[in-house]
Write the structure tokens for this entry.
Amino acid sequence: MMEEFIVETSARHVHLSQADLDTLFGEGYQLTVKKYLSQPGQFACNEKVTVVGSRGEKAMSVIGPVRKASQVEVAMTDARALGLNATIRESGDIEGTEGCVLKGPKGEVTLTKGVIAAKRHVHMTPDDAKRFNVANGEIVNVKVETEGRSLIFGDTVVRVSDNYALAMHIDTDESNAAGGPKKGTIVK
């Protein structure tokens, strides 16, 4: 039997730089933990910001800790509804993407880049990568089985780091298409 890993649905969210956090929430502001996520050191925050597009706006959760650059991660359905142009990218790869306006309780930030639909991916430690016989950056297929909606996700990037925990991340559109999968296996 092929080894399974958890599949998690990543809903729309925002990552903030400290400079943008200061503008949106006040100088020296620190994010507060609502709940820790599966990836070590990552957490959903109590804080939310409003993401503004040409067709509307939506309050979105902030994910901590702060990053070098702010980015907005949305599913393509979210992007269309808000009038945003989201480029499919790995998290953190925001060069050449479009921006948007973020509103917070203390101010507003205009991002010149950073709106993405995160490329589906599997986080792994180096030991996990050896066990699955894959390498960082490799593109794999992941089979998920659900009642009436089983499918194989192609174009899934493997992300390997000592700082990761084994889990696949898909967005809400992908999760809905597959009937809310909870487990996946790599198929070659």
Observations:
- The helical segments are 18-25, 76-82, 126-132, 172-177.
- The chain has a mean pLDDT of 97.
- The CA atoms of residues 108 and 157 lie 34 Å apart.
- The radius of gyration is 17 Å.
